[in-house]
Here is the input.
Amino acid sequence: MIELKNVTKKYGEDTAVDGVSLKIDKGDFCVLIGPSGCGKSTTLKMINRLIEPSGGEIFTDGLDVKKQKPEILRRGIGYVIQSVGLFPHMSVSDNIAVVPRLLKWENSRIDKQVNELLSLVELGSDYADKYPHQLSGGEAQRVGVARALAADADILLMDEPFGALDPVTREALQKGLLRIQKKLKKTVVFVTHDIDEAVRLATKIAIMKDGRVVQYDTPENILNNPADKFTEEFIGIDRALKNLTRMFVKDISSKVSTVKERDKISDVIGLFCDKVYLWVTDENGRFTGWLSKSAKLDGSAEVKDFMHRASSEQYCLSTDTTLKDALSKLVMNGVVVLPVSEDDLVIGEISLQSILESGNG
Ligand SMILES: Nc1ncnc2c1ncn2[C@@H]1O[C@H](COP(=O)(O)OP(=O)(O)OP(=O)(O)O)[C@@H](O)[C@H]1O
Ligand SMILES: [Mg+2]
Here is the structure.
């Protein structure tokens, strides 16, 4: 889908990009990452010919970009620039509609597209008539993303689209982008220098240093087998934990039998087997606490007489929680196993052991 072959960019004696080769498949989310000045933006801008390479070749859909007219090429590629770059004198909807207008779409189609994109990036339709100076940084970045998506291009180039945002807004926009990508399956080249962002979003990561790509692989392989000392230091000492941000509770949750508060203890005692805890629910299957094996249980009593009551908010893991957050919840509660719930119902459990095993995989 996008291929760079031995691409170089020189400014006089200085080499900004030095023999970069990358193959980015259709539907891939490729993240370029590396320290400031390593050539990420330059690489990105050569794909849509905002910068012309000094050497090498670049293809989109098998076509040499040199053989495509820059303005036509650019209409077929969504682009989010490093500093948002909304047109200050244009309303939000006009900013989003720039390329569709160039492509001479009908007005009704443009309006529909603008409305759909505003809701996709979770901005209400009342944002359509605002001007860039009336937006917060995070809102402006969302408009930037919407604008890049506007022409339905298959390729999306994003240069630090969430830079300079607080971690909470940033995470919300990352989640939104993942949701959009799942739906639209664009071929994305995304620049960041935040390794956590890279690990969360990428299907492939290219680690860059001094204008070169030092490793190009899946996030899992990069985290598990960093190519050299530089990559190892760049991804950080918590790389095992980072891997856990790509896995979810639903991937390793195991099914368990739960017991109800009104069950007789003699009827449920056999469920313990090698377990230390049984999860207790109300009549509707909602978590209300646990029954511990170590307690001196009286078989003729009911579960509710011996159970430990607890809130599901504190103890239950939801299926879309990352294993990193699950691990954090285990540690916070000082336990080795926690229940998993979906739509408020207990459906399984996760143990510390199972997280450790998945982290090695
Ligand atoms: N027009 C230019 N003339 C001369 N040198 C340039 C020019 N544009 C970029 N460079 C140099 O090329 C190198 C790569 O720049 P680039 O913008 O690609 O870095 P980057 O990886 O995107 O950095 P950052 O993370 O800070 O955005 C830098 O050393 C920069 O100084
Ligand atoms: Mg840059």
Observations:
- The pocket of magnesium ion (ligand 2) is lined by residues 40-41, 82, 159 (CB under 6 Å).
- The chain has two domains: 2-244, 249-360.
- The mean pLDDT is 91.
- The CA atoms of residues 47 and 71 lie 13 Å apart.
